[in-house]
Design goal:
The structure is a homodimer. Chain A has two domains: about 20-45 and about 270-380, Aspartate Aminotransferase, domain 1 (Alpha-Beta Complex); about 50-265, Type I PLP-dependent aspartate aminotransferase-like (Major domain) (Aspartate Aminotransferase, domain 2, 3-Layer(aba) Sandwich). Chain A has 14 helices and twelve strands. Chain A has helices spanning about 10-15, 25-30, 50-60, 70-80, 95-105, 120-130, 145-155, 175-185, 240-250, 255-265, 270-295, 315-325, 350-370, 370-380; strands at about 35, 90, 110-115, 130-135, 160-165, 190-195, 215-220, 235, 295-300, 305-310, 330, 340-345. In chain A, α8 (about 175-185) links the parallel β5 (about 160-165) and β6.
Chain lengths: ~400, ~400
């Protein structure tokens, strides 16, 4: 790059990184397809027949640009939520909207707060826009609202990220706790509330949508409950001023036309969503029973995945590796104390049977393996440092 | 917004704007569907049957995330172009990649150069990242390479934007002229070469792809020749260091899985593309004949649209408005001297017949209209100021 101009200071300083390794990348690296894809919280329950039909139809119009305003979709969504059109913007998934929010609020050098081990794409964007990240450890597998609030004040954060229900733990806080948390936030800080899994959560977890005050930006997606992960479509709900700011900088022609059609049609099929949510509830109970049978415990989950506590990080790593050797993809959280768990998507009944068999089989071998073997597996695994707190928390 | 934190300085300072008004928005405003959509250079020739089939199939896997690396698509594209995988990144259309490039290279306050009246989304992103735009007027309906180069040096620009073949004129420079232009660029400036219409252009316009030196970022799309405008998929070709920088900040999960499948399948059907290109050539000739019959001239076009010179901005405005009254959507360039033209997409034979009839009809009435009526129409039209250079250039 003799004559190459340097990149911006922010880009130049960034390490090479991706938010996380994708299932497709894993398959290429291993030159082997995955048999069970239970690591990305995709929905094995598919999509609504209405969405399928709408998407097939939309292919016939794919030579035309989609509507950059996603008008019909926004009209339907805002009618469902009882808010104005000006309180909602559609983006190509929550990842897109996380980036948009960070770009709108965080000047280079300004602070953002998140939980240590929470969804990494928020961190990716904060780093990408030159913000300063501050991490707060989870407390008994929950986002530690008290400590998050204190850190916000201490570092004068502009944004605090919170997923409710949470990923990767699956745990949640009630709407009342969130409301109290928001009220204690300093006026210069907004809550960025990631509700990717909200469809699976009990009603008392869901903060009412209320814009008499505007301290919360909420992000939702069609990737999980609605099963449209590959379509890349989600939305943000916020006060009008924030949405107006988003409109000034967002990618207006970023959302696929077929995704728009699929999302809109999905909203006309609430029964499908209810069925998925019931099926997922059943699956969560099944994982809980499985864990008990294997002498393990699970974290309480209000999502479409379950975190199974393996007792220590070495064992969790070893099990993730052994599962992958058998073409079963699950993930484990990246940081202590969460990384003694493995995070398993609730698959279909057949997928769950296959997972239960494989896990049972592997656990037997890992349990009887000597410590050296486990440590070797661990060192070969995710390049994490052994900094796990071995204290077992029953949840 | 009593307690609302302010946005970043850049966002706060931006005016409310969209890159341009979409056909969907026009339809909503007019509460009437468009009969002829010839204003956004979409392809009336549709998509390859292979792409159609691949996209229908891809719907069945839409519950799974797509490959964030677009590996198969990149493998095919780089094999076609004879470059390494590390020289290419896929994004959700050229608009996405324009934003990515600006973000990677332009610090707030730094300069970028473009032609006055060129593709507005580059300008949108430069403003959105706090860059300083400098405009160079077109010269005889061509990008003025000499003046662009001089301005780059004068303002110490980091990026110069150029579409070849050009939008909105349809004109082009040869590869040899581009090469000479690149060689004269100061070392701190890169050429951002938008090749959205390259499939329609004669071979001598296409700069060879050569990465022994790395002064050019090239952007291509599946929206035009391949007819996948609604799918939002395109790619950037650049030196490895630039692609590596893009990887540090790009939206890894931004491209729709069906779009990936459609794009890949399109590349397996070069015959379809050739047919579209031939059909478009025929349509360009037809527009030329039409213009001659109407005592007008066209700019020479190497794209899927033709700019028809109406002689003065007032007349161009009036005709765009009259066409829209009859549900025919075309656009006109935003700045002099281009804005005495209307830009018309090459539609299908049937669309062209309908367009020819409507235009002929309207022209008669506009030609006979008195000057006051034309001026009234003009004032009611696009809120442009009358700053046209009335000198007629025959091209």
């Amino acid at each position: 790059m003799n004559n190459e101009p340097p990149f911006t200071r922010i880009v130049q300083a960034l390490p090479q990184m991706v938010p996380f390794v994708s299932p497709s990348t894993l398959e290429r690296r291993r030159r082997q397809p995955l048999k069970l894809r239970l690591g990305a919280n995709e929905s094995g329950f598919g999509i609504s027949p209405l969405a399928r039909e709408a998407m097939h139809e939309a292919i016939e119009g794919i030579n035309w640009y989609g509507d950059p305003e996603s008008y019909e979709l926004r009209a339907k969504l805002t009618s469902i939520h009882g808010i104005a059109m000006e309180n909602l913007v559609v983006g190509s998934g929550i990842d897109d909207l996380l980036g948009l929010t960070v770009r709108t609020f965080i000047e280079p050098g300004e602070a953002a707060v998140t939980s240590l081990g929470a969804y990494p794409t928020f961190n990716y964007h904060v780093a990408g826009y030159g913000g300063q990240l501050h991490f707060v450890p989870y407390r008994e597998f929950h986002n530690d609202l008290q400590a998050l609030g204190e850190t916000v004040t201490k570092v004068r954060a502009r944004l605090v990220y919170l997923a409710n229900p949470d990923n990767p733990t699956g745990t949640y806080h009630t709407a009342a706790s969130l409301q109290a948390f928001i009220e204690r936030l300093p006026s210069e800080c907004l809550l960025l509330l990631d509700e990717a899994y909200v469809e699976f959560a009990p009603p008392e977890t869901v903060l009412p949508i209320n814009y008499s005050e505007s301290r919360v930006i909420r992000l939702r997606t069609f990737s999980k409950g609605y099963g449209l992960a590959g379509a890349r479509i989600g939305y943000a709900i916020a006060d009008r001023e924030t949405i107006t700011a988003f409109e000034k900088i967002r990618l207006h022609y970023g959302v696929n036309r077929i995704a728009q059609a699929g999302a809109l049609a999905s909203l006309h099929d609430p029964e499908f969503l209810r069925d998925v949510v019931s099926a997922v509830e059943e699956g969560r109970r099944e994982y809980e029973v499985l864990a008990r049978q294997l002498n393990l415990s699970v974290l309480p989950s209000a999502t479409n995945f379950v975190a199974i506590d393996m007792g220590c990080v070495e064992r969790a790593c070893a099990i993730v590796d052994r599962l992958l050797e058998r073409d079963v993809f699950v993930r484990m959280p990246s940081a202590p104390p969460l990384n003694r768990c493995i995070r398993v998507t609730v698959g279909t009944p057949l997928e769950r049977v296959a997972f239960a068999e494989t896990l049972s089989d592997i656990l037997t071998s890992v349990v009887v393996a000597d410590t050296n073997a486990v440590n070797r597996l661990y060192r070969n695994s995710l390049n994490l440092k052994a900094r796990d707190n071995p204290r077992r928390i029953d949840v």
